[in-house]
Amino acid sequence: MEDFRDMPHIRVSAASQAHMRWVHNEPTLSDMLSDPIIQRLMHRDGVQASEVHRLAERLRQRRRTDGND
Predict the structure, then answer these.
(1) 15 assigned to some structural domain
(2) Is residue 1 in a domain?
(3) How many whole angstroms from its chain centre is CA 33?
(4) Number of domains in the chain
(5) Residue 7: left (phi > 0), alpha (psi -120 to 50), or beta?
(6) Within 1-69, where are the H helices?
(7) CA triplet 65, 49, 10: central angle to 5 degrees?
(8) Which residues pair with 22 in a beta bridge?
(9) Which one, out of 26, 37, 44, 65, has a CA that is 20 to 30 A from the CA of 10?
(10) Per-residue pLDDT of the chain (69 residues; tens, 9 = 90+)
(11) Are 12 and 4 in contact (CB under 8 A)?
């Protein structure tokens, strides 16, 4: 998988990279949800970060149960 930070058509500011924790060349879910743009979109759509975290946890548990982890 190509690292999007190396793609010239996608710009990620140094400030964004500096405050986000990266795991396997991707920001963590918490860091993505704390991004101001993402927060505005979630507010517009009536979605809360806690809902996204609960959904991610349910999906993780399902993967473990199904033996896909």
Answers:
(1) yes
(2) no
(3) 6
(4) 1
(5) beta
(6) 14-19, 29-34, 36-45, 49-66
(7) 95
(8) 27
(9) 44
(10) 445 455 555 455 555 555 556 666 788 899 899 999 999 999 999 999 999 999 999 999 998 888 765
(11) yes
